[in-house]
Amino acid sequence: AQEITDVFNGIFAQLRKTPKNIEQATELREFMAGVPAEVMKVASDMTKCIATYSTLESFCVRMTTDDTYQRWRVFGCPKQTYDLMSKVQEDLKGLEASFFKQMTEEQSEFDENLIDLAGIIESFAQYSDLGKIKEIFENVESVNERLRQANAQAKLFNSREGLFSKDQSDYSQLQQLQKEWEPFSQLWVTAYHWLNDSEKWMNGSFGEIDAKHCEASATNGAKTLFKTVKAFEKRENVSKVLDIAKNIKDQIDAFQPYVPIVLGLRNQGMRERHWKHVSDLVGVDVTPEMEDFTLKHFLEIGMEKHAAEIQESGDRSGKELAIENQLNAMKAAWDGVQFDCKEPYRTTETYILKGADEVIALLDEQIVVTQAMQFSPFNKPFKDEIDEWAAKLLYISECLDAWLKVQRAWMYLQPIFDSPDIMKQLPTEGKKFKLVDNKWRQVMGRVHNHPHALNACSQEGLLETWTHANEDLDMVQKGLDDYLETKR
Fold first, then answer.
1. Nearest CA-CA partner of 5 in 29, 55, 39, 54
2. Is the pLDDT reported for residue 53 higher than 90?
3. 460: burial class by Cβ within 10 Å (0-12, 13-18, 19+)?
4. CA–CA separation, 423 and 433 (whole Å)
């Protein structure tokens, strides 16, 4: 009974919610349309529940006041639901009428707002004072915001008219206003940012210029104003703003040849050697520490003539920086790479190499990358360092291969030559194995204390040690095989 009444309580809660707008009213109507189906879902349970109460009553089972209340609640819920729905239907008619009236009033205000916007947009044809650029820009942003809001409002009105089953209002006037407004907005937004930014770029500290933003601003600004000028040329009575658009476009076009200088010298890879190259090009000492470190000064000393070479030098510096960073990253990748030699191997009281797979994978990857760096045309400043690193990686790779080969042989032979009987039968081979065993224990004891893989594998003379050890173990294995053959 409780579960059934909970279902109806949920329905009652939804029906008693008062809609605040036509969207919520529509949602409530949609909910009510589904209520009969919800009632049908619990109809079978209601029938069983009422039948149970009747059976209990026929057996004179005494029921509590709460049981009786629940019984009649279950019985009366469907009617209570439909009665409430009828009341809500009537209430919705009044609410929807008030919502429609409210929307009609808002639409009247909206129409007046569009007329006001049209007047403001028309007045922008007279704006011509660049000295008031900040004030004009703020007005432009205000109009842009009003147009954004008007667009959203128009969509809302059309949506609500659909919910009221009314024909949608024609707001094509708003689209026309936006079309008329677009060139004005593009002009004054571009002009405002251009005048502010170009002043900083020319006279501010060159080291604070965002090269990517500078390039994008010049490129996009030129494209935007090209379209803006074309748009104004097709209109009448906009000669003043057309002149301003041409003026700003000419400024941007004039600045375009300076962009390669900015891109080149603001490259993060610029180092002393690159600044020296630039200084040699222009015949003047140019460094980030110079007193007049501005783009304006660079142009005064004739840097524009060498813009292409300067950009190329900057590009080269960036590619050299990428190699430098990659080389440093490869070295740093070894910081946390260690062999696992914490626990002794069985009862040998010494250790074996574990974790070699990670080392081998890192080696293989870095050898390929380093070889590619050796063939890069931008490796000159780091060639010696790259060659040294390549040689080190190859040494480590060969050393680790020999080391693991020794380990495999040692792990097979150690329990065999741990037997006194074998040592007596094969004294020469036993002596050779003991020499290798002693060297193994010495090296592995050092690795146990200092497990850093790069350092462990790059010890001077270690490759030679393992090469000789492998030769000795091959001889020991051969002697052992011959001995076992004689015993068959």
1. 39
2. no
3. exposed
4. 10
